[in-house]
Amino acid sequence: MRKIYSIFIIAFFHQMSLGQTVNIAVDANAGRKTISPFIYGKNNNVSDNPSSPATAAQWKFLRDVGLRFSRENGGNNGSKYNWRKKITCHPDWYNNVYTHNWDYAAQKLGDSLPNAQGMWGFQLIGKAASNNSNNFNDWAYNSSNWWSGVQQNLAGGGVPNGAGGSNATTNGNPNLYLQNWTADSTVNILDHWFGVGGLGLNNNKIQYWSMDNEPDIWYGTHDDIILTQPTAEAFMQLYFSVAKKARAKFPNIKLCGPVPASEWQWYAWNNTKITAMNGLSYTWLEFFIKRISEEQTATGIRLLDVIDIHSYPNESNSADVVQLHRLYFDTTYSYPGANGVKTIAASGWDNSITQEFVLERCNRWLNQYMGPNHGVGTAVSEYGFTHVNANISSVSYASVLGTFADNGVSFFAPWYWNIGQWETMHLFSRYAKTTRIKSLSSQELNVSAYSSINATNDSVTTVLVNRALTTSKTVSMTVSNFNISNGIYTFKQLNALPSTETFISHTNNALSSGTVQVTANTFTVNLPALSTTAIILKGVGVVTNIDKQITHSMQVKLFPNPSSTENALIDLSGEKINDLNLKVYDIRGELMYSNYYFGQSPNVIEIPSIHFSQGLYMVNLSSAKGKNWTGKLVKL
What we know:
The chain is an alpha/beta fold. Helices cover 23% and strands 28% of the residues. Helix 10 packs parallel to helix 12 and helix 13 packs parallel to helix 14. The protein is globular. The relative contact order is 0.11.
């Protein structure tokens, strides 16, 4: 009977795909999975210069847009950061040394964006900046203008090659501007920030740490000290040393690696496969996962929490750009930029291999080497594509956000940022809910549905993305296992974006509103070409026997309540909860504050009610395993 039902469903969607109407089926009890709020991230948001601070308006912008993850280690500039002297070396600008105050940036992020997670990084390369008195005088040379010679190694007394390019006439001496930097030196920032006598920063807001940056191309980016690319095993030993010391100092840290540069480096180390001690050859990401597993087994120390990659697809054709979301998990997608993946063949190269699905491959390798309960997430901490059309950029980014929500990605932080992305982040972070539920589309190539439900099981948002370049689509959507009263419901939509930035604030942006008429849990809506639409439905979730078995209340104390100027606190000392989600809503149902605590939650968590207006607020706590608690908070 089950087989016949499956065949019927497949035939139904095939038949519907032949017509004009796109049929969407949403099941509120299928595929439930916690959505990490940290997929709403970006690189380089925070000033680390106390003499040039971000303005109050800039901080308000980031709060309004819903930024929840801010990676601030500076990419290649972070590999030689000296946190004691607050300076670092810029390898893409003559190796000159400049001031960067991570202490200041971390403090300001925590104070001004309290519901965001900050990410910084460790230095594994073995050297850090020591002084800025040996910089190349670029101002005297060409008034500090960019030219093709900015990558020449001129700090430390180098002589420029006026013809340009990356090779100086005479390289500078790195010993004049760098010092040795051990594993102890790099991880001691944890004591400085979180330890006794330190700055008192909240380590729950700075859990994720990059294990350096793009080590697979050190011989190119840091060629002042890396004259020959180290072997993959040599890098693993550097990684193990820092990871073990970091875990000892900060047990709940999230170690994120190996942060490879892009598609070729996902598979190749020093442009080739890696031959292991067993004589077999491995691509880079598989070798990395294999060695992590072996070392964890040998030592009993957890050495990896998130497989983190960088991704810079260079497609420029609009039809390809709107499909970029498929290269991470879609096993059927023939990616036009496939290159390094062709080296996974036993023969070393197979030009017919074009299915990338890199994060799905990582999940398979994690299961193979660590077992099914490994608990390691996936993430993309740098990402970038270039497109001048804001609607292409918006729809492409929306598709990636939806795909990453569907697949439980831990965090996502683009490096390049295009017009249309702020609007899209705001739509998702403001209106999507906390738990993913399953959606099926009869025309997935052009129209996808990304659905989510809230912790109290009474609101569903489905984000519909129409990737068709010129054609509007009529969608008929049906929701099961969620009882919706017949009536009119609201949607929020992005389309026809101009070439200039439109997002100003939560109340001043390009979102348009409309309504749908729901009858018997079904409605029809028209989606303009290149549009993203959030359908917001209120109702009552249909609780299954499984839901009843895993739903429990928490032992929670909320104080002070009422709250005046101080922050409200939630005492969870009587609970041991993993993957805790905190949401605070005003009486209109608008999300005012949220935070997510991966791993075991702290004993006491903080609600920054000092930023709330007077009134009544609903506080909701939920865990990945179904525990929940809802209470009222009064702000005086």
